[in-house]
Write a structure and sequence with these properties.
Number of helices: 6
Number of domains: 1
Largest sheet: 6 strands, parallel
Distance between the termini: 22 Å
Bound molecules: flavin mononucleotide
Strand content: 5-15%
CATH architecture: 3-Layer(aba) Sandwich
Length: 188
């Protein structure tokens, strides 16, 4: 099973990356090794306006990973009540119309504030639904992320750790069911 885990920001020292590391460990505990797409690794050339036309060759591994994914687990922070601009730009750079069509997508959001990235998750959900993806219903929102992470970057809040584990288990099952039936695939 090919699960792609998207680290949805390019901010250095990102808490999103720490939460993503925890999620990756949970996948490993359930026998799945996700492929990581860290938006801080996007090639600088992608940010040239010419990329709306020709994509730089270094972007191919990102674009291919999304095209080949059985499922995508997207981890996003909240920036100004919204999804980070780099995440929307990344989606805009993906191969159209093939990308995301019929692909299950799970969302985990985190924020310093009390809403736990509800808004960016809903915004991303709207975008992937527009692109005919299948949204996994169990989303996890992490408010007050600075109190949830321990100094070593691990998750010290047991309730959130449990919710993340349930989300990972549930998403593996969801992806597996969609893969094995194929009946949810929509036309491009
Ligand atoms: C540009 C920027 C905008 C932010 N806007 C919000 C916000 O609207 N709501 C909120 O709760 N936290 C906001 N924060 C705090 C982030 O949610 C918090 O720093 C979180 O750790 C960000 O994820 P990151 O560490 O992966 O960048 C903002 C942080 C940055 C860098």
């Amino acid at each position: 099973m090919s699960i792609v885990l998207v680290i949805g920001t390019n901010r250095p020292g990102s808490n999103t990356k720490k939460v993503a590391s925890h999620i990756i460990q949970r996948y490993a505990a359930h026998g799945v090794t996700p492929q990581i797409l860290d938006l801080s690794d996007l090639p600088p050339a992608l940010f040239e306006p010419a990329s709306y036309g020709d994509k730089p060759a270094e972007f191919a591994p990102f674009s291919e990973a999304i095209l080949q994914a059985d499922g995508i687990h997207w981890v996003t922070p909240e920036y100004n009540g919204a999804v980070p601009g780099v995440a929307k730009y990344f989606i805009d750079m993906l191969q159209f119309p093939e990308s995301l069509v019929g692909v299950p997508v799970a969302f985990t959001g985190l924020a310093a504030g009390i809403w736990g990235a509800l808004r960016p998750v809903e915004q991303l959900q709207d975008i992937v639904l527009y692109r005919n993806a299948h949204v996994f219903p169990a989303k996890v929102f992490i408010p007050g992320v600075f109190n949830v992470l321990a100094e070593d970057g691990s998750i010290k809040d047991e309730a959130i750790a449990r919710r993340l584990d349930d989300q990972v288990k549930g998403f593996i099952d969801f992806v597996d069911k969609i893969r094995s039936t194929g009946k949810y695939t929509v036309s491009k």
